[in-house]
Write a structure and sequence with these properties.
169 residues; seven-stranded antiparallel sheet; 7 strands; globular; 4 helices; single chain; alpha+beta
C-alpha cells in the first residue's frame, strides 16, 4: 500500500464521518492520519490480526469478509466512498473481528489507532465524540448484517465459496 504526506484537518472535515467535529479535534486527529492508496485485491487485515489502524474510504470498494465453515471467506459487507473501515481498534484485545480486501483500487485516509487512543485518553471530549460516531456506524452495520444473514439462512444453497452474500450497498 502506498502512503502519502499527512492529511490536513480541513480535508478530514470534509469526510462525512468527521463532518461537524470541532476544529481542534480535527487538528489532533490529523497528527495520526495520512493518505494511502491500495490496489485491487490488497488485503487490509485478517480476522484475528492486531487491530492498530482504521480508514476513511475516499474512493474504491472494500469487501469486509468472514470465514464461513464449508464456504471459506465470504464477503459480508461492501464498503465504498465515504465509508469507515475498522472499529476493532477501539476495544481490547484490539483484534480484527473480520477481514477486509480491496475489491477495486482504494484511496483512503489511514489512522494510527494507537495514537488515536492516546489522543482520546488525553481529551475525553474527543474520545466520547469518536466513540459515539463509531457506535452509530456499528449499529447500522449490525442491523444490515442481521438482515443479510436472515437471507442467507432462508436461502442456504444460494451462496458459493468466495461469493458475496449480497449486492453492493
Amino acid at each position: 500500500m502506498d502512503e502519502t504526506p499527512p492529511v490536513p484537518a480541513s480535508s478530514l472535515a470534509r469526510h462525512p464521518f468527521l463532518r461537524g467535529l470541532r476544529g481542534h479535534h480535527l487538528e489532533r486527529l490529523a497528527t495520526a492520519a495520512h493518505r494511502v492508496t491500495a490496489p485491487d485485491r490488497h488485503r487490509f487485515f485478517d480476522e484475528g490480526g492486531r487491530a492498530d489502524r482504521f480508514w476513511l474510504v475516499e474512493t474504491g470498494r472494500v469487501g469486509v469478509d468472514a470465514h464461513v465453515p464449508g464456504r471459506g471467506l465470504v464477503v459480508v459487507e461492501t464498503l465504498g466512498r465515504d465509508a469507515v473501515l475498522g472499529w476493532s481498534w477501539l476495544f481490547p484485545p484490539f483484534q480484527w473481528r473480520f477481514g477486509a480486501r480491496a475489491l477495486a483500487p482504494v484511496r483512503a485516509v489511514e489512522f494510527d489507532a494507537r495514537l488515536v487512543r492516546t489522543l482520546c485518553a488525553d481529551d475525553p471530549e474527543l474520545g466520547h465524540e469518536l466513540t459515539r460516531r463509531f457506535a452509530e456506524v456499528m449499529l447500522d452495520r449490525l442491523q444490515a448484517t442481521r438482515m443479510r444473514l436472515m437471507d442467507v439462512y432462508t436461502h442456504p444453497g444460494r451462496i458459493r465459496p468466495g461469493e458475496t452474500l449480497w449486492p453492493d450497498r
